[in-house]
Amino acid sequence: MSLLSPTDQQTLRDMFADMSQTVTILFVTQTIGCETCDETRRILAELTALTDRIVVEEVNLVLEGPRAAEYGIDRAPGLVLLAGGQDTRVRFLGAPAGYDFMSLVDAILAVSGASDAALSQESLELLAQVTEPRKMAVFVTPT
Amino acid sequence: VGLANRMAFSSPHITAVTIQATEFFDLSRKYRVTGVPKTVVNEEIEILGALPEGQFVRAALGIEEQD
């Protein structure tokens, strides 16, 4: 059964139609000891069913640990967003369920050039001055 | 979350990880997450709650607020 209603599916389809490049989601998974990997897989399948501009590639944490580590992911489920094959430095840890589902959709739209909500010129100027690595961890809950 | 992701996407030096606090209790404990959203930058700057863009970006970059 689908997790999304037909209305929501159509809304998302319309949003994804504006994507100017393909977004690849590297889905870091593991078979044992990952309670929400199955749920994450179902959620991602719902997205890829709506558009061919979203591609999911599974990376097994146990078998392909070094590949996951390249993106700083050491646990599952983990998501890494690539736009046009390039790392966007946007990652998610944990199932993108509830409110976080919209965060994932928003991120996909933002990195593929389909979001109207860009940062202000002032913010971009501040960001242009950043030369040291900064790792931002944003803790959220699904509701 | 949206702001952090856009910052990461806009700067090659910034990485943004959204973490489900309820799934990764070890990380939540390590960073003393008592409420969400909570943003931790380079393990030193802590931002509690959602802020307007200008304030959030300045806080995350460690720029003092100008009065």
Descriptive notes:
The complex is a heterodimer of chains A (143) and B (67). With 143 residues, chain A is α+β, with helices and mostly antiparallel strands. Chain A contains five helices and five strands. Chain A is globular. With 67 residues, chain B is α+β, with helices and mostly antiparallel strands. Chain B is 36% helix and 22% strand. In chain B, strand 2 and strand 3 form a beta hairpin. Chain B starts with a helix and ends in a 6-residue tail after the last helix. The relative contact order of chain B is 0.14. The model of chain B has no long low-confidence stretch (mean pLDDT 92). The chains are: A alpha+beta (143), B alpha+beta (67). Strand 4 of chain A pairs parallel with strand 1 of chain B.
Number of strands of chain B: 3
Count of DSSP-assigned helices of chain B: 3
How much of the residues of chain B is beta strand, in percent?
15-25%
Q: Structural class, from helix and strand content of chain B? A: alpha+beta
> Largest protein interface?
A-B, 41 and 43 residues
How many beta-strand elements of chain A?
5
Q: What gap, in angstroms, lies between the N and C termini of chain A?
A: 22 Å
Radius of gyration of chain A: 16 Å
